[in-house]
Structure formats: structure tokens, C-alpha cells
């Protein structure tokens, strides 16, 4: 199908950009000498994940058991479920392992560790579990120097659970925007995770995997000594948040929302689009960054940026395209809004956050350089 | 299935509250002497819509052609597609009408009006179109006194398209929070839409339907003389935004997200939940209102509010439950966070915006007063 024929709103993936992003990350990981385990929560799309694996990824990271089930059913067996496990979810994890899936779990507390050990013992299953380490204080995990780290390690180790390793995610990297700060956080992430592994080893607990990563720290890391693998997700498509963090250019962003002009408010200088927040998502993460992109950056259908314009507002199925504040070129064109953006005109919008925007769609339209496209299914739910 | 058995995260509908909300709105419309046409974009769920129709609703309002197709396939024929039409979507609208669906379209500009007339002429189909009126400046529509109103009316009327009426949506009602301001906006919405109808009639164009509404203005309206029907959507479930607007109590909110405690950061007083923004949505609309509820209001599994706590942050699959700032009772309990919210504990979170949160889930769990539940499917996409 040609771009002009796709019904709007629709989620487009520029396949050439995606392949460039995949190649860039994989080359970086190869240079650093670590394995790469992409986080597939960004796309939940088998076509994308197959491209990541074809480029050299070893195994995948998932954020839900539904992702684990879907990708295992498609033949991908090496899966890290990177959200701290709770007892009620163990039956689904067990079912996957019984089917032959090399599903690895994560915990960051003694209660869950003991529950996994007891459940495994009860069902004759030897789970493999990584311990989540907190290297930047932004969310979950045990700090490298905490006693709890060894407590959890011993509960697992002494009760028949294989300690697969340690893992961390320096998600506070999204709040930074200089190469120096990102490199420093990448080193903090690496050093903290390696230190946790060393403490476990000193306590007599094998700790083979040392898994770190976020898109910004992965791309900023200068060396990863002691780490065995890196995880990252959003790099595959990139987005405006990553642009503001400084790890991609606007023309690296592979995801856009195709939309149609459906109306105008001439006196306000608005064009009304059929992409509201249901298509763009409610993600406004760039509002806290150096450049606030509203609900997204408009482009022409051919991808040419419209730097003087912004998606200034969104209702469920209506988006408002307006002049970016203070842009003299765009201001001068306000009176011509109906001429510049006539009814039926198609535009593309670069999203703030590719993970959130993609999740609003049942499928991507994967667009080739010649403008032809095919549908790539994605899924949602838990 | 019992509440305790539902896997998390999950979207729960309290059926008794939903039925109360439906009955309240329908009773109000009956008193005002207008037909009620619920906007089904909030739930996209046939079970909910059947309950609205059983209570007296006449026809439905949809925000996408996919909703129109799905509900028509389920036997609902009287459908208003309340987003301004563009030429590229006419073939899908035609297909629905050819199957017998009484699909009504909306336009607010001469270009689209002419395109509908030409397309209808070409295909021998007499479309019915309502003209969208702008009564509060928040989005789409033609102001009642604008010449464009008559231009659009004439283009339709003189080219074989039935003018079904006028319709408006005073969406700026979401920004208000007093009964007086809401009643004044409801009157502005009514008066503006009735005025637009009168102008069309004076120009010799029949204008049978005068359709107004938003949840706040529908509930605040004191009289609706001249209006023939009201549309509203979120009232069926309500949410924290509507609570802040002042049109529902917290215990009217029928939607909640079921979640499990998966970890802690004791020194920060955090409990980590398995409901992140993928479950709660990125909607932070209460941040601009009198009471900022973060990513939602936590409750115990039985629905008891936890007023000292808030969902203070969210990543894709992680939510952070923390003490609401300045709450002395909750502050005193920070050290006991692991005791108050142990690993595996289930909680419910009232959402900021029911339309956005529901859209994150493939199904609702409809919970009866005895705690038993059934699954109600919902759909997404366009």
C-alpha cells in the first residue's frame, strides 16, 4: 500500500531509519564487547524484534508475561522478564519454563525471593533469577552496598534457585542532556552493578550475568568492563524525548503518526487534525525538557519537518496544529492556515515517546524507502 | 471469578456504580425533556452500551468509524459520528449506510460539505449531516453568527444532502469547578446551538436536531429549551478529573485499576506497584486542577480510599505509591511502608481520566456487589 492510501490516524515506521538505529546500537555494543538484549516493550512487534535479532541481539527483555508468551510462541526462547516478580505471577512463569522457554525472572526483595524458592521447590522447577540493583535511585532495586543484596542472594542460592546475575536500569538518564552527564551516569550504572556482582561473588554466590542499560546510557557508555550485557528499548525507533536527551537527531526518529487535516479555526491560526491523544498518547514528557514539543512535531507527508509548528493541544480524536510560540515565520503564516494546511492534507507527527504512542495502535505501517508499506501487527494487554 | 483471582494490572468496573451513574444521567435528561445519545468512546464496550440503551438512551455517539462499524455489527443502528468528516473516510461511511446503518456525519467547513455532496451524488447516497457549532472556542465548529454556517448549510441543502441538525460540545467545561460556572456554560452551549439552528431555519434550511453536551454541562444544565438531544461520555464511569470539576463524588467513580505491590524503597517511603503508565495511561489532567492526584488515587482492594497516599510517579510497568505531600498521617507511616503495603498486596487505583485509562486494556472486569466478576471486551484502533 502507498502512503497516500493509508487511513488516518496510523502509526508509521520508517524502516530505513529503524534499521539504521538497530545497526548503530548493535555496533556500539560490539565495540564495547558486551551482549545486547533489546527491550521489546517499545514495539511489542515481532517484525521489529526479528530485525533486532538478525542484527546480533542475544535474547530479549520483556516488561510483561504476555510479551514473554507472545515472543516465545514465535520462537524466541531467551527472555528476561525485567519487572520484579510477585507470587501470583509464578504459575504463568512456570508454564513458560515447562514449555521450554528460558525465562529469567527478577527480584529485589527477600519476600519475593523466598516465594520463588518455595514455589519452585513445590513444583520441582529450578527458576533462574537476577537480582535487581538500584544504581540511580529512580525506581526499583537494591543498592549495591545494602545488606539486603546478600540476603536475597542467599535466599535464592540456598534454596535451589539459580542466581542468574544482577541487573540494573539507570532510568534517570532520561532527565539528562549532555554527553558528559550521560557518560558519568553510564559509568555509575556500570560500576554499581559490577560492585553488586562482586559482593555476591565474595559471599560465595555465582553471579554470571551483569546486565545494565537504558537507551541514553547504552549510547553514552565509554567502557563497560565487568558488564556482560546491555538492555535498551526505545533506541529502535527513538522519539522527541531522546532527541532532547541528545542521543538522536530528529531525522533518526523512525515512528510517526500519519494524520489528516479535518478543519480549521482561522482566527486562532489552528488546523484541526484527526490525531488526538488517542493516537499520539497522553505522553507530554518533553514538557519537562529543554524543548517542549507539545503533543508532537508536525512534518509534511514526505517527512520534511515543519519547525514553526507544534501540536499545541489534543482531545481524544482531535489534535490542534498551531504556530510554535514566538516563531516569526509561522506567526506570519497564521492568516494562511487554511491555504497551508487544506482540508484533507496529510501530515506526519513525530511523537514525544515512542513506547507510549505505539501502544495506542493495533498495527504499525512499515514504510519502505519507495513509499510502499506493509502492516506489522503489535499487541497490548498483560 | 473473584476479585482476588484477577491477574494484575486489570481494569475493574464497579457495575453498581456504573448503573447508578447511568440512571442519574438518564433521569436528568428525562426531566429536561431531551433525548440522550451517549458517547461510547469512553468505554468502546458493548456490555456498557447495552446498559445505557436499556436505561433509555436513543442512539449513540462515536469518535471513530471503527466504533460505528463495531456497534452497528452488534445491532445498534442510530449512530452519530461526531468528528468532522474528510473525503478519504467517505467510502467507509457509505459502506455502513449501504448496510442499513443510520450513520449521521458532522462537518464544520465548506470543503468537506461539498465533498460529501459530490461523493453522495456520485454514489447515489443521500447522507445526513449535522453542522458542528463552536459555542466555547475550545476546538472545532463554526460560531453561531458566522456566515460560514449558512454557507455550509446551503452547500449541503442545495446538493441533496439532508441537514440533520446542528451539534456542539462545550469541552471547556472540564476547566471549570463550580455549579454556577458550569450552569452558565451549559446555557451558553444551549443558546449558541439553538441560535445556529434558528439561523439555518431562517435561511430556509430545515434543522431538526439540536444536539449539545459534555458530561459537566449535561449534569449542570438547568433547562435545555430548543435542544433536542444531549451527548455525554465519561459520566458512565466518572474519574478524578470529573471529581475535581465537581460533578461526581469519589465513590461514584466506577473504574479502577487493580494492581499488586511488587517492591519497596523503604528510605523513600515508596511502595512499587505493577501498574505503571501503560495501565494507568499517561493522562495527568488533574495536574492542572485544584487537586493533583498524580497518576491516580490509591484504594484498598475493597474500595476504601487511602487519602494520605498518591501514585507519585509511573514508568511503563512500574507505579510509585507514596505519601501525599504534607499529609501528617501518611508521613508518620512512611517508615512502615513495607508493613502497610506488603509484597503481593492488591490495591485499586482510581484513574484521572476514564477514557484514557480504559483504552490501555483489552477488557474490563465487571465486578458485581458480591465481588464476583465477568470479562467485558473492549476494542481499540481506528
UniProtKB/TrEMBL annotation, chains A, B:
Residue span, D-serine dehydratase-like domain: 254-368
CDD domains for the chain: PLPDE_III_DSD_D-TA_like_1
Pfam families: Ala_racemase_N (PF01168), D-ser_dehydrat (PF14031)
Domain of life: Bacteria
Keyword Lyase among UniProt keywords: yes
UniProt keyword Lyase, yes or no: yes
InterPro entries linked to this entry: Ala_racemase_N, D-amino_acid_metab_enzyme, D-ser_dehydrat-like_dom, D-ser_dehydrat-like_sf, PLP-binding_barrel
Keywords tagged on the record: Lyase
Family from the record: Belongs to the DSD1 family.
Designated name of the protein: DSD1 family PLP-dependent enzyme
Originating species: Paraburkholderia podalyriae
Amino acid at each position: 500500500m502507498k502512503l497516500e492510501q493509508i487511513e488516518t490516524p496510523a502509526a508509521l515506521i520508517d524502516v530505513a531509519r529503524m534499521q539504521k538505529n538497530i545497526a548503530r546500537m548493535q555496533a556500539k555494543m560490539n565495540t564495547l564487547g558486551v551482549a545486547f538484549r533489546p527491550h521489546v516493550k517499545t514495539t511489542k512487534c515481532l517484525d521489529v524484534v526479528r530485525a533486532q535479532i538478525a542484527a546480533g541481539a542475544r535474547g530479549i527483555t520483556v516488561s510483561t508475561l504476555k510479551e514473554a508468551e507472545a515472543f516465545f510462541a514465535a520462537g524466541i526462547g531467551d527472555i528476561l522478564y525485567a519487572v520484579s516478580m510477585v507470587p501470583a505471577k509464578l504459575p504463568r512463569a512456570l508454564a513458560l519454563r515447562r514449555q521450554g522457554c528460558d525465562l529469567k525472572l527478577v527480584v529485589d526483595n527477600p519476600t519475593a525471593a523466598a516465594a520463588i524458592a518455595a514455589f519452585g521447590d513445590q513444583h520441582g522447577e529450578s527458576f533462574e533469577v537476577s537480582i535487581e540493583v538500584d544504581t540511580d535511585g529512580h525506581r526499583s532495586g537494591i543498592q549495591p552496598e545494602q545488606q539486603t543484596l546478600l540476603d536475597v542472594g542467599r535466599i535464592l542460592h540456598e534454596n535451589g534457585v539459580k542466581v542468574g546475575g544482577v541487573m540494573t536500569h539507570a532510568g534517570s538518564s532520561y532527565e539528562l542532556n549532555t554527553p558528559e552527564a550521560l557518560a558519568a551516569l553510564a559509568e555509575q550504572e556500570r560500576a554499581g552493578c559490577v560492585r553488586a556482582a562482586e559482593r555476591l561473588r565474595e559471599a560465595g554466590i555465582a553471579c554470571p550475568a551483569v546486565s545494565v542499560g537504558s537507551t541514553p546510557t547504552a549510547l553514552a557508555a565509554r567502557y563497560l568492563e565487568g558488564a556482560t550485557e546491555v538492555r535498551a528499548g526505545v533506541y529502535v525507533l527513538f522519539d522527541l524525548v531522546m532527541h532532547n536527551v541528545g542521543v538522536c537527531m530528529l531525522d533518526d526518529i523512525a515512528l510517526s503518526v500519519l494524520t489528516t487535516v479535518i478543519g480549521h479555526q482561522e482566527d486562532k491560526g489552528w488546523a484541526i487534525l484527526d490525531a488526538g491523544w488517542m493516537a499520539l498518547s497522553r505522553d507530554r514528557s518533553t514538557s519537562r525538557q529543554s524543548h517542549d514539543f507539545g503533543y508532537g512535531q508536525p512534518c509534511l507527508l514526505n517527512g520534511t519537518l515543519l519547525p514553526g509548528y507544534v501540536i499545541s493541544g489534543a482531545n481524544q480524536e482531535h489534535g490542534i496544529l498551531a504556530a510554535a510560540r514566538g516563531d516569526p515565520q509561522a506567526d506570519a503564516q497564521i492568516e494562511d492556515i487554511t491555504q497551508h494546511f487544506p482540508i484533507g492534507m496529510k501530515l506526519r507527527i513525530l511523537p514525544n515517546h515512542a513506547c507510549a504512542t505505539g501502544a495506542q495502535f493495533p498495527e504499525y505501517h512499515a514504510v519502505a524507502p519507495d513509499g510502499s508499506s506493509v502492516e506489522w501487527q503489535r499487541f497490548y494487554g498483560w
